[in-house]
Design brief:
Helix content: 40-55%
Radius of gyration: 17 Å
Number of domains: 1
Bound molecules: L-Erythrulose, manganese (II) ion
CATH architecture: Alpha-Beta Barrel
CATH superfamily: Divalent-metal-dependent TIM barrel enzymes
Strand order of the largest sheet: 1-2-3-4-5-6-7-8
Structural class: alpha/beta
Number of helices: 10
Distance between the termini: 4 Å
């Protein structure tokens, strides 16, 4: 069956769908509530090993590390028209890959850090740049045994790879055995005609999964059908983490508890053999 985590950052973040607070408060609480893991969203890749150790000391896994704060706070952008910015973004991601490999964190997320892709006359030019950048990052991913988790993002956040079909086509062109898709129900609810069909289409290429309700609040606070979505995910053979990336309102503990109870109910209908 799936394991459950929540996206958390130890710092003040310019991103609303992530839990915040001190690691000493948040990590033990997640463990006590029954979470299996914590997804870390970080600005500085060198913060990863210490946080992974703390999480493991409390029995929590770290399935993936998110990098989007580097775009939001520092402007690091893999497809910036400025070569210097592109280089810094690429090097930063490679540092994430190296730290993830050393700490045995399975995946590094490429979401917002790919940039909006709007600095070119054609989106295809920005995609070409993204492909070149990811080829380099892919070599690092192979060296360190880390998955690159490419996340389709809705049209309001990027012009690049909005749908599962676009991301699948891109990944097959990239031809990197470490490149996987990260599917996020929030983005899929905006871009996909039928979420379940897109999950089935991504099939064995799913490397990680972000979960939020239709409005990006905790599962249970919107109108998505999680039994049906998790059933489709289960059908693909995916048995990794489903990681809540949600707006923390009204408060962290309420959100963490509601997420867990909604997902447990949705999973209870799935086959027991795992
Ligand atoms: C951004 O909306 C998102 O879903 C993140 O996982 C990407 O960095
Ligand atoms: Mn996401």
């Amino acid at each position: 069956m799936f394991k459950i985590s929540i996206a958390y950052t130890p710092q003040r973040a310019k991103f609303e769908a992530v839990a915040t607070g001190t690691p000493e408060a948040v990590i033990p609480l997640l463990a006590e509530l029954g979470y299996d893991g914590v997804e870390l969203s970080l600005l500085d890749p060198s913060d990863l090993p210490g946080l992974v150790t703390l999480a493991r000391d409390h029995g929590l896994e770290v399935p993936a590390v998110g990098t989007g704060l580097n775009y939001l706070h520092l402007g690091l952008d893999l497809t910036s028209p400025d070569e210097n910015v592109r280089k810094r973004a690429r090097e930063r991601l490679l540092e994430f890959v190296e730290n993830a490999g050393r700490s045995e964190v399975a995946g590094v997320i490429v979401g917002l850090i790919r940039g909006r892709g709007d600095g070119y006359s054609k989106t295809s030019e920005a995609l070409k740049v993204l492909e070149e950048q990811l080829r380099v990052i892919c070599r690092g991913a192979l060296d360190y045994g880390v998955k690159i988790l490419l996340e389709p993002l809705n049209r309001y956040e990027s012009l690049l790879l909005n749908t599962v079909a676009e991301a699948l086509e891109f990944i097959s062109r990239l031809d990197c055995e470490k490149a996987y898709l990260l599917l996020d129900t929030f983005h899929m609810n905006i871009e996909e005609p039928v979420i379940e069909d897109s999950i089935r289409m991504a099939g064995g290429r799913i490397g990680h999964f972000h979960i939020a309700d239709s409005n990006r609040y905790a599962p249970g606070m919107g109108h998505l059908d999680f039994s049906s979505i998790l059933s489709a995910l289960h059908d693909t053979g995916y048995r990794g983490f489903i990681s809540a990336e949600v707006i923390v309102k009204p408060d962290f503990e309420t959100v963490a508890k509601l997420t867990l109870s909604t997902l447990k109910i949705a999973m209870s209908g799935l086959t027991r053999e795992g």
